[in-house]
Amino acid sequence: MPSIVPTKLLAGVTVPDTPLIDKALAFARAHCDEFTYNHVVRSWLFGQYIGDHIPEFKERDIEVQAIAAILHDLGWATSGDLVSKDRRFEVDSAEGTRAFLIREGQKEDWDAHRIQLAWDAVALHTTHSIALYKQLEVKLCSMGIFADFLGPERSPGGVLTREVWNGIIAEFPRLGFRGEIKRILCGLCSTKPATTYDNFVAEFGVAYVEGYSLEGKRFVDVTAVAED
Fold it and tell me: What region holds the HD domain (predicted)?
């Protein structure tokens, strides 16, 4: 992308302003409920602010970071055919992001490397312990998303202040965050449980979903019957 990118102010944060980012925002709004839309935009804004205030992230691709953050939960979509029956929601989100970029991005700007970078940022966003060792865009996408869960006081470097947080929340409200996260993740455990057994979503199934069980599904169960 060009070294100089137009910017605008959104919820008190200076963000890149490109036609493709606008299309990504419209796509997320069209396919996700209001809770999910607000969450992904907050995640983008938190990540943008953190990245702008930590020198390590100066050379990042801000358009990749933006689009990955905005589209990172397409696997929670409430319309269209973005949600599969047999893939983790992170993979559904990454595949939806790839399809969006191939369809809407300019071919001369979005080569295989940039598209793969966006795919990785989305697919790994919940696997913080791996994302933090990947490229800047992948790392920062995950940081921004985790900031929405952990709050400003636990943000990387402590650069995300409560004042900035409150300004973003005022424009993109949390809408009962804890209850909505529980609803969505329990829904995955109910509708496609096989995609949850090897990841953190299973914890919601075990805790809250009647009939959900990890018996025989844990890796320790697999190794127990492996040939010696």
Answer: 36-130
The label of the residue with tokens 């938190």 reads 46
Q: How many CA atoms lie within 13 A of 201 on its CB side?
A: 24
Q: Between vectors from CA 63 to CA 111 and to CA 157, what angle results, nearest 5°?
A: 125
Looking at the domain 7-175, which fold is it?
Answer: Hypothetical protein af1432 (1.10.3210)
65: its two tokens:
């970071």
pLDDT in tens, the chain (228 residues): 556 789 999 999 999 999 999 999 999 999 999 999 999 999 999 999 999 999 999 999 999 999 999 999 999 999 878 999 999 999 999 999 999 999 999 989 999 999 999 999 999 999 999 999 999 999 999 999 999 999 999 999 899 999 999 999 999 999 999 999 999 999 999 999 999 999 999 999 999 999 999 999 998 988 888 888
Beta bridge partners of 7: 16
Distance of alpha carbon 61 from alpha carbon 136, whole angstroms: 8
Chain centroid offset of residue 225 CA:
36
Alpha helices in the chain, H assignment, sequence order:
19-31, 34-52, 62-70, 89-104, 112-123, 128-131, 136-150, 162-171, 177-191, 201-208, 219-224
